[in-house]
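Justification of resources, computational component.

The compute hours requested in this renewal are based largely on the per-chain cost of generating structure records like the one below. Each record pairs the submitted sequence with a full structure-token output. That output is archived, and it is also reused by downstream analysis tasks.
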Amino acid sequence: MMNAPKEVAENYVNIGIGKTKLKTARMFILGILAGMFIAFAGIAGTTASSTIENASVAKLVSAAVFPGGLAMVLLAGSELFTGNCLLVIPLLEKKVTFPAVLRSWVFVYLGNFVGGLLVAALVVYAHLGTLFGGALGESIVSTAVAKVSLSFGDALLRGILCNILVCIAVWISFAAKSVGGKIVGLYFPVMFFVLCGFEHCVANMYYISAGLFASSVYGIEAAGLTWGSFLLNNLLPVSLGNLIGGAAVGCAYWFVYLKKDE
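The structure output for this chain reads:
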């Protein structure tokens, strides 16, 4: 048994109302937890793939591991900025106000950032990068360098593509009525976005900060990798792209299932 798409849309209106009514401190802490869960998925994926020489196989292995992050986000209870782009649904239904949605986006985003930075620092300063003869550290840094080397346009478009899939994963999880169904439902959209190299702002809060820390701690050369390139070359366009992609999914489902006919 599962919820039909129209039921998911109707249910998300109430879910969204609840999200916007969270106290700021709770919203922020739940954001930190989500940032940490996604970061744990990031380091797990990198660890699993760092010694695989074939690039496509390495990407496949990483993509197969990463969906565990969103599973923790949705099942353990936390707030993820990219999934919360679906708040456009209760907004279009006029059940929440734009300032309330914006407050949620801002504090959840900041919490996600803190969570990602925290795990990145713990991973690097615990010297996990020395695993496999230092191959893990090299992989952490090379991933970060590749991400800040994207053009603004590429990062923006990859962000749009990514959050279309993430929001579809969230949508499918709300359709399922069992824990197993939710995990199976969210698995493939998340796997697809990692496999295809799309860009997720919360994941990048971990990936790029970990690369910055690792480059400094392990003395690994990282051309072009700075806090400025992190924030301006990647996080800004990817966040905008994620917002556009997620909001597009929300608008489409609102129009199809909730918009009242004239």
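The CA atoms of residues 192 and 232 lie 26 Å apart. The two ends are 33 Å apart (CA to CA).
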